[in-house]
Amino acid sequence: MHRTIFDTPLVNTALRGISLAFLKITGWKIEGQLPAGVSKCVLIAAPHTSNWDLPYTLMVAFALRLQIYWMGKSSIFSFPFGPLMRWLGGIAVNRSQASNLVDSCAQELVKADGAVHLVIPPEGTRSKTRYWKTGFYYIAVQAQVPIVMAYMDYSRKVSGLGPLFYPSGDIEKDMVAIKAFYAPFKGKNADQFETPPENP
Fold this sequence. Notes:
Elements: H1 11-25, E1 29-31, E2 40-46, H2 53-63, E3 68-73, H3 82-87, E4 90-93, H4 98-111, E5 116-120, H5 135-143, E6 147-153, E7 158-165, H6 171-182
Parallel strand pairs: 1-7, 2-5, 2-6, 3-4, 3-5
Antiparallel strand pairs: 6-7
């Protein structure tokens, strides 16, 4: 994986301090932490309903000392913002190649040296959607890494890391359990987030 702001000396330290101060001033509370020994994982980023989710996610990542990477549509990586987005941990995604994307992400996780915490919003979009995409699940299965239940609840101004979830391979059963965990959380645009029990 490419170098990011999260492993850039001095800058990382300074931005962690700024992030902690901003979150405290604005009333946000950070909960949980990544268990020791978990260097590679897939983090669910939910609810994802606003452009504000990205800057808050970056600040929470600094606060929790995570080494995150996130996927975004390829258009936001166009000149002149591409290098900045990659430095912030971004990975350009071609949504027309979803199946290849799962395979390539899983392979990158396996091959990577050091910590890689891949953040994926299961809705795949900020717009209202009833069904979650399952790419995050299959990436974790193929790479044989745990899923971290990361959350951001705007109603209570609480964000953090929930428990580790180890995929069993039974996706229907596992998705019911995962969605049940996220049901209480409210995104910034709460009416755009749903956690129905079944996928199509």
